[in-house]
Design brief:
single chain, binds 1-deoxynojirimycin, 21 strands, about 15% strand, five-stranded antiparallel sheet, alpha/beta
Length: about 575
């Protein structure tokens, strides 16, 4: 017996309000790297439009499109020059409208990126703002006089390894940028700025988009006295910059003025946000955001300087338990293990050795799709795409890498091999290599020369091969999405970790009403035994051979996932 969602009550047995954005699975597209339709080496909107059936067939209901707006691409579109124009490299507004229509025609929805902590320095607001101190746009950004010694107004640093202030010669004042110099921060204290943001949101909502992923939204409000950073935050500056004094007020204003007038979904990128602060952002009674991306999982293997370190399975498990404990039935969350800012999940939490890659990718996708929260699949993870083996700094495109390397050189450190070795574990460019569609030239991504080199393993790992192989990760993900839809316990169910200290097994239950599903994931190459509570259960899904059960003991094959109804 399945519990088809169509016949479920509006409030679940454990008190969650049902919402389409809780029940759907999201697929993230990084347009630059998805599919090139015109041979210029860069992905584009028509390329995406031609692949909608591929996405739909996976069972996904929502697409999140990373920025598609006019941009000089200092940070690949996260530096917007004109919010109401499409990036020329990606196509035209007519192409966007056609893409949106194609998404809707297939019964899917589209959410877009809202990048409004900062603009490009080439946005008209900024080119005006920097012109003179009395320009009407001056207060659209944060300008401050130099400190007494002529240096920056305070000691803040940017996320891209620079000072957060740049002196502008025209007026002799510094402007604030928490990211690159070409990404000046908007001044949300100015009500005109907020009105501009509400207006651009309405522009896209009125076209029919179904919501927003909100870039670094906790950074929008800053302490206007701009103090130096307290020493206790020096190794975690994002926690100092985020959740400023008027952040909740601004988000609630956004809700009242814009969001409440549409049936949309919102997901904030919760940089610098603790779990306690997360609950305030997503509690449905507060009218702020539907859900946020928390970074604990994707920062599991990083120190405060961004250097890689090893990790153990109980650390990963404890993150899920903490989230389940911190977020009650009034809150909702997300689950993601790869995005355009991370390495590939299979190379990171799985085992990308060719003998184990597919099996471990299936384990990870099972985790992604059976935890509490709306799951976000990143393009290519449904194929088990892997990290790229970088050898030189010059192979990277990412501004974060280029700035960090310049900083190293300035500091007299030029050990390229160890710099690249760390990036091979941590770089954002791993997930930005072109999507692998076929075994052909450039993985079928482009007929031209790709903007970022493709992974040479496209000959083995590509969508055409996956679609021809019934045992592929793609078909496994499709079956998982269908199972999730048929079992509301996988969406709304209460969460319990049955073996938090086990170094190889991740075993948990999801319970809703009278249904309890056990998810048993073996995160190792070893066969591992596990005692099923109550001694029996029906295997609903097995990623490898169905495990041998003797009495109460299940022998779980290496890198395997099982979903068992107790
Ligand atoms: C977060 C985005 O995901 C990342 O790609 C970007 O560099 C920064 N925000 C700045 O917009």
């Amino acid at each position: 017996m399945t519990h088809d969602l169509v016949n479920q009550p509006e409030i679940t047995a454990n008190g969650f309000t049902r919402q389409w954005w809780k029940e759907a699975v999201v697929y993230q597209i990084y347009p630059r790297s998805f599919m090139d339709s015109n041979g210029d080496g860069m992905g584009d909107l028509n390329g995406i439009a031609g692949k909608l059936d591929y996405i739909k067939d996976l069972g996904v209901e929502i697409i999140w499109l990373s920025p598609h707006f006019d941009s000089p691409n200092a940070d690949n579109g996260y530096d917007i020059r004109d919010y109401e124009k499409v990036m020329a490299e990606f196509g035209t507004m007519a192409d966007f409208d056609a893409l949106l229509a194609g998404v809707k025609a297939r019964g899917m929805r589209l959410i877009i990126d809202l990048v409004v902590n900062h603009t490009s320095d080439e946005h008209r607001w900024f080119t005006e703002s920097r012109r003179s101190k009395d320009n009407p746009y001056r207060d659209y950004y944060t300008w401050r006089r130099p400190a007494a010694d002529g240096g920056p107004p305070n000691d803040w640093t940017s996320f891209f390894s620079q000072r957060a202030w740049t002196l502008d010669d025209a007026t002799g004042e510094y402007y604030l940028h928490l990211f690159a110099r070409k990404q000046p921060d908007l001044n949300w204290e100015n009500p005109k700025v907020r009105d501009e943001v509400w207006q651009l949101m309405r522009f896209w909502l009125d076209k029919g988009v179904d919501g927003f992923r909100m870039d670094v939204i906790p950074l929008i409000s800053k302490d206007q006295s701009f103090p130096n950073m307290p020493g206790s935050y020096l190794d975690k500056p994002s926690y100092y910059y985020a959740n400023g004094p008027r952040m909740h007020k601004y988000i609630q204003e956004m809700h009242t003025k814009v969001l409440s007038h549409y049936d949309v979904m919102t997901v904030g990128e919760a940089v610098g946000t603790t779990l306690e602060q997360t609950a305030l952002l997503v509690d449905e009674r507060r009218n702020e955001l539907n859900m946020v991306f928390q970074f604990d999982i994707v920062q599991l293997d990083r120190d405060s300087q961004g250097h890689w370190h090893s990790w153990k399975l109980p650390e990963l498990k404890s993150i899920f338990s903490q989230h389940a404990a911190a977020l009650d039935r009034h809150c909702w969350s997300t689950v993601f293990i790869t995005n355009h800012d991370t390495p590939r999940s299979v190379s990171r939490y799985g085992d990308d050795d060719p003998a184990w890659r597919v099996r471990s990718a299936k384990v990870l996708q099972t985790m992604l799709l059976t935890q509490r929260g709306t799951p976000f699949i990143y393009q290519g993870d449904e194929l088990g795409m892997t990290n790229f083996a970088f050898e030189r700094v010059s192979q990277f495109d990412d501004i974060a890498v280029r700035n960090a390397w310049e900083g190293q050189l300035r500091a007299g450190r030029n050990d390229e091999a160890s710099f690249v070795a760390n990036l091979n574990k941590t770089s954002r460019d791993h997930s930005r290599t072109p999507m692998q569609w076929t075994e052909g030239t450039a993985g079928g991504f482009t007929t031209g020369s790709p903007w970022l080199a493709g992974n040479p393993n496209a000959g083995q790992i590509n969508a055409a091969a996956a679609l021809a192989d019934p045992d592929s990760v793609y078909y496994y993900v499709r079956a998982l999405i269908a199972l999730r839809r048929a079992h509301p316990a996988l969406i709304y169910g209460d969460y319990a970790d049955l073996a938090p200290d086990d170094l190889r097994l991740f075993v948990y239950t999801r319970t809703l009403g009278d249904e309890t599903l056990l998810i048993a994931l073996n995160f190792s190459r070893d066969v591992v035994d596990f005692a099923v509570p109550g001694g029996k259960g029906e295997v609903l899904m097995a990623s490898a051979a169905t495990p041998v059960q003797v009495g109460q003991i299940l022998s779980l094959p290496g890198w395997s996932a099982h979903i068992i109804r107790l």
